[in-house]
Amino acid sequence: MEKEKKNFKKYTYGFWSLFFLGLLMVFGLFFFIAKGKMGEMPTFRELENPQSLLASDVISRDHKVLGRYFRENRSYVNYDNLPPELIEALVATEDVRYYNHSGIDLRGLLRVVKGVITGDSSSGGGSTISQQLAKMLFPRQQFESKLELVLRKFKEWVIAVKLEKSYTKEEILTMYLNKYDFLNLAVGIKSASRIYFNTEPDSLKMHQAAMFVGMAKNSSLYNPLRRPELTKKRRNTVLAQMQKYGYIDQQAYDSISALPLGLDYQKEDFKRGLAPYFREYLRITMGASKPERSKYASWQQIKYEEDSVEWETNPLFGWCQKNFKPDGTKYDLYEDGLKIYTTIDSRMQRYAEEAVEDHLKLDLQPDFNKHLKSLQNPPFSGDMNNKEVDDLLNRKIRQSERYRVLRLEGKNFNQIRKVFEQPVKMEIFTWKGDKDTIMTPLDSIRHYLSYFRSSFMAMDLATGQVRAYVGGPNYKHFMYDMVKGGKRQVGSTVKPFLYTLAMQNGLSPCTKVPNVRQQFVMPDGTIWEAKNSGSEREGEMVTLKWGLANSVNNISGWVMKQYNPQSVVDVMHKMGVYSRIDPVYSMYLGTSDITLYEMVGAYGTFANKGVYTQPIFVTHIEDKHGNVIARFRPERHDAIDEQTAYLMINLLRGVIDSGTGRRVRWHSVYGQIQGPIAGKTGTTQNHSDGWFMGVTPQIAAGVWTGADLRSIHFDDISTGQGANMALPVWGRFMKKVYADKTLEYKPDHEFEKPTNFIMDLDCEEQNDTNKKPAQFEDFF
After folding, report:
1. pTM of the model
2. Domain ends where: 342, 369, 399?
3. Are 171 and 299 in a shared domain?
4. Which helix (H) or strand (E) holds 456?
């Protein structure tokens, strides 16, 4: 008996020794894990500030999100903006005792152990919401053994406990829902709400919230786009959990579980949505680095000089490189959650994009497609020989992505050219929708070259804020931006700068000059003259107003002779044209390459009483906490005197009321626009570029239209002139703007006359404003 007692004590002592030793070892294990002795652990500072990449939002003037810049498409949402149903569904499904533990649910762990012993997988998991958050914030690596996986699980327990100490329960739930990846570029509940249901988190309905909680089990498996029925079944499981724990009753469960998913999917794609050209311009501009001088081609030197001016004078250019966060690091457009408040109005932007598309799709492209049938080597004009065409095609081949890939494979140009002549399956753009076809890459180049492009920009005159920005017809297929990125010859839209010089020097719109050919002696001694497109009133004395209204080169040539070319260049630079302009006599025909952005800003000077107002794109930027960290205002300076500006407005109104722009008044589709309008059409040599600049008392806007290559164009003036190529876009846009009663732009505003202005501008040659256009309108 005594021996049995001794053995009992011995075994008892041994049991408790082993128990406490095991307990000590467990505590030691967790202690060493917490101290980072068992592998790297997040520091307390990292737990206080967990790394969370937030997308930067591009926001319109009327508070619409135009797009986002991101590495992870995540936008932050506060707990107060999370619907109670979402929180209840998450807790009921993932961690019903969430509010009663400190990161580790012992009852849940025992349930898991029981499930392992009995083989009953329906007993559920043991991970708490805090543990799941730990896994998301500090993701698992690729482990080599089960032992490392077990060790990682212990680490997650430690992190979960630390999270519970560092944050409130509400903060942990908020972090969880802001961090979870719901697939399809929907990271976090705010992005997911917008992408799957086109709504905000606080507007989620119960069945929508339940779907998101259901996805949290395994978003790849429960993907509503790929497996809607399985996702719905999982959603109803979430609803059943809510009913089980008293968040909803049986009646609510029965009615809600019968609902379809009701997706309103909004694909997140930077090539889609409003203002894609503008968003890309903004992205490149804000992230630009300080320009470095190039030792190569002359065009690279010009680009360096222009970028250097932008770097010094444009506060938006290189903003992320110039500005620093409180911790001393530079702002990152893709992860710092900036709110970029732009000047773009989503309504006006939509009208502008519709105007460009409707004009090209319904009118201009069908006309050009008919013209293509008459060409020997379409889409190139008939005056191009085969060698010239082949050289242009080879240049386009070298500019393609396919060429770059083939060059990396070691192929020479001859080999690559043969590849471009072999048919392959591809998707191509058409105005009837993208089309799957079989075509040679070379033919696809011809196909895309045959499409006309158009760009548009509109600016509010009072503020300099750009309201609409359309860089091209379709960003997915024609990514080159022709508002700020591309330059083309401006044709007769340059003539108002020449006439401005005349008005500054005492002439008036009613000044009469001879309508005769003007000859110029070139530096090499040769004689040059610009021809008119017609002979109307040739040999007569005509007013400057009539000459500009009808874009008569004889009259512009006469004015050009009165002054030296450099004087015209100086006027243009003062009015905001920063591109290089050769001071030669032929410049009055618009031979210089200038951006649409520059032209809109310069024309705005006429309506702003001679004050140049720089077009701007952003009003202010906020950080992720809502603090304003930058404000932007336009640069303004006196460019011309107020009287000169008003005289030019009078001249340009003549273009609309009785000259080459009078379609604005009478055309049934894009005309019949009332109110005061000043404008100018422009067409370059061979009709390669069509322009229209239109100014009202409130808005300055401009249009460029043309093909990718200047050798692709209409052959006749009736279809190739600016009044037909570009003006209709402006007209379509303004008709919709004036029809929108929610906008402040109205046709009843007037151009303000200068104080004490007494000059008589009622020139006798003014034509009937209802007169339809002549057979010719604007040649150069």
Report:
1. 0.83
2. 342
3. no
4. strand 453-460
